[in-house]
Structure formats: structure tokens, C-alpha cells
Design a protein that fits this description.
mainly beta; 6-stranded antiparallel beta sheet; 5-stranded antiparallel beta sheet; GMC_Oxidoreductase_CD; transmembrane
Length: 273
Amino acid sequence: MTFECLLPLRLFSPAFFYSILLFCSIAILTKAEDPTSSPAQQSAPFVDQATGLGMERFFGARTSFAFAMALPETTSSSFIGQLSFPLVNGAGWGAMGLTGDMEGNFFLAAWPDGNGGVMATFRQGTNEDNPPEVKGNFAVRPIAEGVSVNATSLTYTFLCENCLDATLGLGPEATSANAVMGWALSEKAVRNPGNPGATLGFHERGFGPFTARLGNAKSAQFDAVAATAGPPVSGSSRAVAVTPNAFREGEGGDDDKKKGGGKGGDDDDDDDD
């Protein structure tokens, strides 16, 4: 048998297939760790139909994840936010963060609580495999008129009291200009969903930075809508004290695509959400 006849057999040997499988697995994992948005994507004007509140909203066309934000006309450490994202058979979780890099980010996550409602919890990206629940001088209060959940989608409108803090990544003094914020999405079910300290897995559906036009997010309706917020959501016994300036650990990385903070950029990215 000639060498020319043996060559195709060698190419399709088990070792060859194993090499291809390994290469594809590495490529998929690398892609999963790449941001699916960029600071070039900016928020746009949005009016919430449930409350009538004018907001600035980031929307990811590929994932259908959205985060909207409204601020009072006077400088404040509080804001009204709205998370909206798809679920898969009633499962999944979504989050918004004060900075664009997931490492050390202070963020609010929400998911179906398993009893027809929504659970919300503050987390900090100091552990990528399971960001710990954190507590501090901040609170989340749901606005019932803007909360809904079913098998295919979740919307959570909330008052975030004292959430704007420079040591957490975004302070009140920065709300008159653009700011790079972040988001994350998973379609995996949260184990023990009725517990605010439940384990959160990896945000495999998408994540990344975007530019929030905070100077355009101020609304004369803010106080009226904020007054309808319910009592603060209680944390779990697992909550630990928030770590000031933890977000700075994510600054200055080698991968420019993963950088957050600043005023946002103009670079385009074909992989943007």
C-alpha cells in the first residue's frame, strides 16, 4: 500500500479526532469568556409602560437583556433601575453592575424565586464561580407595578437606595456624564431560588460593558415612582460585608475588551450584543 493511500487513514485516526475535539473545546471556552458587548454600545431613551417613568436603557439585541435606569433631578446616591431578560422554562438570572468589568464588580442580580415572584440580591465579583452576597449601607426595594415573571421572561423594577458610591465603582458625583456599567445573563436555574444567598453559576449567556448616558437619565417623575417602592429585600445569613474598591482589581487588564470604567469608547465590535 502506498503512502498516498495511508495518508487519509492517518488524518482520520482517533488521535486526529481527539485533537480536533480538544481544539474546539478550547475555542468554545475562550469565546464564552469574551464579553458580548462593548462600551461603544450606549443606552437610549426609554419609557417604562408600567410606571410611565422615562429612563435610559441598554438593550442587547442578541440576548434580549435590558437594563434601564432613572435618576432624580438633584444629585443623589439612589436610582431606579429595571432589569428585563428572557428565561428558559422559567429558569435563569440576570444582573447589572456599577462598572464594566466583572472582576470586583458590585452588582444586583435577580431571578425567579420559585413561588411566582422575583428574588434580588447584591453580589460582588470577587469570586467568579460564585459571587458572594454582600451587605452594606444600601438596599433594594421592589416597585411592584414594574415586577413580573413567567416561564419566558422576567422584569424587575426597583429602587436602589444608597447604591451609588465611588468606593463601589460609581458615585453620585459621576451621574451627570456618561459612565461604563456592566451586565450579565445566564439561562441556568438558580439552586434554592428562594434564598437570597443562593449560588450563582457562570453567566454563560452573555456579559459585558456598556455606556450609560446618566446625564440623560434624570427624571422629574423619579420621586413619585420611588415613593411606590416596597420594603427593602432582606439578605441571607450568608451575606458578608462589601469590600470597598474591589472593582479596582479589574482595572488595567491586558485584554482591552474586558476593561470597564471611564466615559466609554467609540470602537465597534462585530461580536457586540
